[in-house]
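Quick start: what a row looks like.
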Amino acid sequence: MISRRLTDICFAWAFRAFSFTGALALGAIVVFIFVQGAEPFLFPTSENLRLVVERVDELTVNGVLYENRHEFIELPRDTETIIINFINREEERTLIFNLSPQRNYRTTLLLPIDAGTDGAVSSPDAYTFSVSYPGSLPGLNQRIHIILPEPPYNFFRFISGRAWLPTDEKVYGILPMILGSIFACIGALLLGVPIAILCALFMSEFLNPKIASIFRGAVELLAGIPSVVYGFFGLMVIVPFIRNTFRIPAGSSLLAAVIVLSVMILPTVIAVSEKCLKAVPRSRREASLAVGASKMQTSFFVVLPHARSGVFAAIILGFSRAVGETMAVILVAGNSPQMIRSPLQSIRTMTATIALEMGYAAERHASMLFSVGIVLLVMIFILNSFVLFLRRKGGEEDE
């Protein structure tokens, strides 16, 4: 029969292995996010120019023949002129691109482009230029695209930029999203925290313990409701209420997001605050009552100040909950990346940006969404560090 000591040793090593594996997996995820998010600020999207052709079976690029090419045609970055020869409707065509590789490609247009009489020149985005020729059948045009490498993006421009145009202009500014996230969370705290603290005081100081347990279960039930349900409630009730009350075209706004988030942070703030209030020594209450203070005065001027570090931690945790919220905000905020000038204006948060655009983002755009995630991760890290500091400070004061 296996001895108890051997069993304890086996379980101890198993717990260490599981803990190490979990920590390693978490570290790998964080490293991956930071690597992906830092890439746009350190490296260009490509070291070379790239050509892509559609419905062109054979072409010659600067004297080099390519047949049935379905992937990128790589050209040196310092190429100044690209001469392309191919057959279009049984006629030989020559297409000439004049480049200025010594300049920033973002500010240098591919002009002039010699596309002939029937070639149509277009620019799908700031770094892609296309020439289209009529094909043998309608709708089957032959196209040649040249994709320029995007230079490393300026980090301060990313943080302080006011425009988010990732698909056409390739401009990535997240200041409106940072402000939208912060204002929505601060508004939720201003609206929800007083209600949560009063509710926690009522449950811990004035309510019968048996009835308080019922209220406590209701609060825990609120914490278990999916966020999309809160968002749907806000979309069907709060958004129309704001639209009809303030006579605005759309009720999806910062105010709607604040109201929904304030309801969502209530369970977190109430639960943590109540535990901290109940942890206050009974002797403090008895001493206050003994000198003639009422129960209300004892609750507000003795119990609450004594538990202030825990209450502050509950508030910060509620803020972290609001910062990381996605689905509910998407449904009620309007999702417009613009500078905030009114609480009735539509906003977009950082989490909403990631959720809405990650499905179709590619290359630099996808990397920038990882960068948005890094900013969000740093914000939550700072908040959690502040929580730990408050708890440590509260523990030192109690001693």
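That is the whole record. The first helix runs from residue 4 to 42. Residues 128 and 147 are 5 Å apart (CA to CA).
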